[in-house]
Amino acid sequence: MKLIGVVHLKSLPGSPSNTLKLDEIISKAQEDYNSLKNGGIFGVVFENFGDTPFVKDDITKRTLVSFTTVLNNIELSKDICHGINVLRNDGISALSIAEATDADFVRINVLNNTMYTDQGIIEGKANEIMSFKNTLNKNIKIYADVFVKHATPAPGSSIENHAEELLHRAGADKIILTGSGTGKEINFDELELISNISTPEKLVIGSGLNEDNVDKIKKYANYSIVGTSLKKEHKVENEVDLENVKNLVQRAK
To answer: What is the C-alpha separation between 179 and 189, in angstroms, rounded?
Structure first.
């Protein structure tokens, strides 16, 4: 299994939570990135995790410029794939940042269907996203969540139908299965259901992977996005721990 580590950016200028200057945010992001790289990670996704409370689907121009500036001032390795996730669900901005920073993929929490979230009701914009994607100067892959964490699907929704529609109608290159929240383990019954629809190459585990469950999970999915398990003391607010990265990368092989 290939692991994609997460650099949780500190709150950016433009967010009500911002307290740091850009150079401080860049420095902390570079430290986490270096630990992930030196630990043998396959890829890294950058997300504006600190920008709470999140904007539902249209970040400010100031946040967009700040996010792009941070990425353009981090020393990135050409041997690692890179992704962008703009929370809560701004796929257009994510693709724009990805194009400007030469990233390989974006993560979009709600690409299609409807989810009830703490930011309100979010409706997928697959047509708008794919139309914009086709104008870009680079083929940027789309990783799309199925029943994304910190959210509830609309009544009557089926996780199997959602997964199938993402892959065959909405334009997702890979689908992401998560637990109920950040760092929470996935539901293994849901994993079984989705494994009948998606190949391991197209399935990404999006939360809760750790040294105790990686052997059980890796036969279903070729990729996992990992944040909390790679932090010091396994706390999402802490910095990335190099030894945690090395250990989980080794276990995932």
So the answer is: 12
CA neighbor of 110 nearest in space, from 173, 37, 162: 162
Q: Helices in 39-177 by DSSP H: which ranges?
A: 61-72, 91-101, 126-133, 159-165
Tokens of 14: 């433009």
Find the mean pLDDT for residues 47-63.
96
Round to whole Å and give the CA distance between 22 and 67: 9
Q: Centre a 10 Å sphere on the Cβ of residue 56 and count the other Cβ atoms it contains.
A: 17
Tens of pLDDT, residues 98-117: 999 999 999 999 999 999 99
Go through the domains of the chain in sequence order and give each one's CATH number.
2-252 (3.20.20.70)
Whether 1 contacts 206, CB under 8 Å: no
> Residue 76 and residue 247: Cα distance in Å, rounded?
22
Please tell me the pTM assigned to this model: 0.96
> From CA 181, how far away is CA 149, in angstroms rounded?
5
- The single-letter code of the amino acid at 33 is Y
Percentage of residues of the chain with pLDDT beyond 90: 100
Among 43, 125, 139, CA closest to 89: 125
Strand pairing partners for 225?
4
> Containing H/E element for 226?
strand 223-226
pLDDT in the model for residue 223: 98
List alpha helices for 146-252, DSSP H. Answer: 159-165, 188-195, 214-217, 242-252
The answer to whether the beta carbons of residues 161 and 168 sit under 8 Å apart is: no
Q: Is 176 helix (H, G, I), strand (E, B) or coil?
A: strand
Written as six digits, the tokens of 30 are 């570079």
